[in-house]
Each structure stands twice: as C-alpha cells, then as structure tokens.
Write a structure and sequence with these properties.
The structure holds two protein chains of two kinds. Helix content of chain A is about 45%, strand content about 10%. By secondary structure, chain A is mainly alpha-helical. In chain A, strands 2-1-3 form a three-stranded antiparallel β-sheet. Chain B has a single domain, classed as 3-Layer(aba) Sandwich (Rossmann fold), CATH 3.40.50. Chain B is built from five helices and seven strands, in the order βαβββαβαβαβα. In chain B, strands 2-3-4-1-5-6-7 form a seven-stranded mixed β-sheet, with helices on both faces. Chain B starts with 16 loop residues before the first strand and ends with a helix. The chains are: A mainly alpha, B alpha/beta. At the A-B interface, helix 2, strand 2, helix 3, helix 4 and helix 5 of A face strand 1, strand 2, strand 3, strand 4 and helix 5 of B. Chain B: One of its GO terms (molecular function) is hydrolase activity. Chain B: Keywords: GTP-binding, Hydrolase, Nucleotide-binding, Receptor. Chain B: This is Signal recognition particle receptor subunit beta, a GTPase.
Amino acid sequence: MSPVSRRRDLVRPYVVTGGRARPSRNTLDLVTLLTAVPGRPAAALGPEARAMVELCRGGYLAVVDLAAHLALPLSVTRVLIADLLDSGHLAARNTHRPAGTPADRDTLERLLDALHAL
Amino acid sequence: MPSTLCETAYVRDSVRATVKLLVAGAFGVGKTTLIGSVSEITPLRTEEVMTQAGAAVDDLTGIEGKLTTTVALDFGRLTLGEDLALFLFGTPGQSRFLPLWQDLAHGAYGALVLADTRALQRCFDTLALVEQHGLPYVVAVNRFPDSPAHPEAEVRQALDLEAGTPLVTCDARDHTSSRSALIALVAHLHHLTGA
C-alpha cells in the first residue's frame, strides 16, 4: 500500500472539507490558474489549505496541479480552493474558454503554429 | 505534503490562455505514454472520487461498506509561445467514467481518441462518450510492435468513422510522432471553426 492510500484510509476525503462535497462557487475549471495573494498569512488554516497556499506562493498552478501535488481528490481540492478564494488567500486567473462558447479560431491558429515550431 | 515545487512545475506568469484537450481511450492503449512524450512536465496523476456510477461494475467484494470508488487521471502540460498553455488529459474511455467526462469535457476543445488495432472494439465506448459530449475528435491508431497492419479503409469501417473524421497513425512513445497526432487534431479543430 502506498503512503498516499494509507493516509486516505486514515482521513476520509470529505473530513478535510468539513463534509462538503460541492465548492462555494462553480467557476473552477480543472485548468483555472491560481496563485497566492501576497500578505495573507496561512498559519490559521487547516493543513491541506495551508499547503495549497504555500504551493501557490511560488507562482501559478492549475486546479489539477494542486490536486496532484497534494494527493487530494479533485472534488475535495475544488472545495478547498473555493474557500481560499472566498477568504482572499488565493486569486484565480480565468484563462480557459468558457463552456458553451465556440472554439476560438485565433487560439487554435496560434496553437497549431506553436506545435509545428516545437 | 510538499511545500515548495521546482520552478518548472509552475505555469509561466505570462500565460493568458489555457487550452484543454483530451487524450481518450481504453486502459493500456498508450494515453499516458503519448502525454509523457510531448509534455514538458512529467505527467502528474490525480484522483477523483466517484460515487455509485462504478459500484455496479467494480468488484467491491469484501469492501461492501465502500460507497465510493476512485479513478486515476493522468495529465501533462505544454507551454506554447509566451502566453498559451496546453493541458492534455488522459481520459479513460469506459462508459462507467461518465461523471468524470462531464468535468473533463467542460470547455475542452476536442479529443484525440487512441485506438489499438489489436482490439479495435475497445475503442467503441470512448467514441460513444466523445460523441455524446459533442467533442470534435481525431482517431490516432497507436502502433504497437505486434499490431496487425490493416488498410485505413478497414479501420475506418470497423470504427464507423464519418468521412470528415481524420484517422492517423502514431507511435505514442515517440515525441515527433505524438506531436504529429496532436497537430492533426488541432488542424482538424481549426478547420471546423472555418466551416
């Protein structure tokens, strides 16, 4: 058994979120970018939330990056991130295409050029 | 839990647009291999907790009290130019992962569906999920050393592909070959926006 799954058995996923399965906001995509807001102390936060803020002090990370680095399920990660956005510890940069909007031709063109140049 | 990461783990500050593409297919078809051959970060693994959906399929003998099951999700990232970050999500193609698909397909531009000619039928579920979510896609046959060589027309027919859906071949272990498969997908998506 890996260290991660052992920890999972000891702390059920939603204990971390106080039993909540849904985040306080629905705008968090898997690739929404997050960074820590300077000057917001994280000492009073729970261990997972504190680790998130500390990781985000180094720059921008996507929602999935945080879930992977902290070995937390995505749904739990989202609840915690939404809390940290509400409390002003984290700031989001919405860079992804809003759902329901047509694919952006200009972005695809630049993507194509960049892949050819890779 | 780590409290710091190396600099390359972060998305560059200048990134203003993120593009999400799915690399979808059955277990063992080479999704993570393909992502790893083009990603600038070692593919990361995250998990999602799924309730009920998998319960009828997963063997829960001995753990009857378990109401949730987890599914692993691998992903990689590529920074392109100054301001573009491409996220590639390895997406398991079995229909029991439907709840996960809704999340992954949200805002995704399209999907590269990986197929294995040794077992083409394993691709059907994936194609059904991609179509159900309205995602444009390209099929890439991942050539394994013992893959039988089928004429393209036969593969197209077996997968019941529409005439406009591109079919390419790749070696998921090879950077250039995987990049070409991605280029085929993005070119197709680009073509569709002009239609």
